């Protein structure tokens, strides 16, 4: 897919963000989106082809791969990026609504359509809560699906149609685990930034 939409969305949100919000946009764009496009996508590109079991029983390898990797790391990461970025659309739509309302009434109704106050403040707070919620949900998903953020070198599989317990080997496990830890670290950083911005706006 093209990531231009998320890039444009983040650029638009940057105009209406606080200082902490701009740091969040930079982290998502530089340390998550670019890392995904430039490096991470290639590491998981052939994960199914490079997953090998020490048996050639038809269907065994596919069943074992599906059991240990019900959802690809990289597809889940892509979905996470999309989900944590889209709540920012609420802010963009609210500002567009204010600008359209001013145009419709042909007079200035707001000091600045992009100023975070009143209804826009509520929309901004809701977007922060949604972003934080999505981050936490995806961290829990990663933890549950991949056994505590681990990528083992060897997995033992006894799923049918395998005739017995077989050994299956995952390609580039160390490299994948490094990127998984990076993903978790950047998610935690984004949660921290969202909570900081939420506190800043509430107490301000």
UniProtKB/TrEMBL annotation:
Connexin cysteine-rich domain: residues covered: 134-201
Chief location category: other
Transmembrane segments: 21-39, 77-97, 118-143, 178-203
GO biological process: cell-cell signaling
Gene Ontology molecular function terms on file: gap junction channel activity
Transmembrane among keywords: yes
UniProt keywords, alphabetically: Cell junction, Cell membrane, Gap junction, Membrane, Transmembrane, Transmembrane helix
Domain Connexin N-terminal: residue ranges: 42-75
Membrane topology: Multi-pass membrane protein
Taxonomic superkingdom: Eukaryota
A single GO cellular-component term on record: connexin complex
Localisation: Cell junction, Gap junction; Cell membrane
Family from the record: Belongs to the connexin family.
Subunit structure: A connexon is composed of a hexamer of connexins.
Protein role: One gap junction consists of a cluster of closely packed pairs of transmembrane channels, the connexons, through which materials of low MW diffuse from one cell to a neighboring cell.
UniProt name for this protein: Gap junction protein
Protein's organism: Mesitornis unicolor
């Amino acid at each position: 897919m093209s990531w231009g939409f998320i890039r444009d969305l983040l650029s638009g949100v940057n105009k209406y963000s606080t200082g902490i919000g701009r740091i969040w946009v930079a982290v998502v764009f530089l340390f998550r989106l670019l890392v995904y496009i430039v490096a991470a996508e290639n590491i998981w590109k052939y994960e199914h082809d490079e997953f090998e079991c020490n048996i050639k029983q038809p269907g065994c390898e596919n069943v074992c791969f599906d059991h240990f990797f019900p959802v690809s790391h990289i597809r889940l990461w892509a979905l996470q990026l999309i989900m944590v970025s889209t709540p920012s659309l609420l802010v963009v739509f609210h500002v567009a609504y204010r600008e359209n309302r001013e145009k419709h009434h042909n007079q200035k109704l707001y000091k600045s359509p992009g100023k975070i106050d009143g209804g826009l403040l509520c929309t901004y707070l809701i977007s922060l809560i949604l972003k934080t919620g999505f981050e936490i949900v995806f961290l829990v998903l990663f933890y549950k699906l991949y056994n505590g953020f681990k990528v083992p070198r060897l997995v033992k599989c006894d799923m049918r149609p395998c005739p017995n317990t077989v050994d299956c080997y995952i390609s580039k496990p160390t490299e994948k685990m490094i990127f998984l830890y990076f993903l978790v670290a950047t998610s935690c950083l984004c949660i921290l930034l969202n909570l900081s911005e939420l506190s800043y706006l509430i107490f301000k």
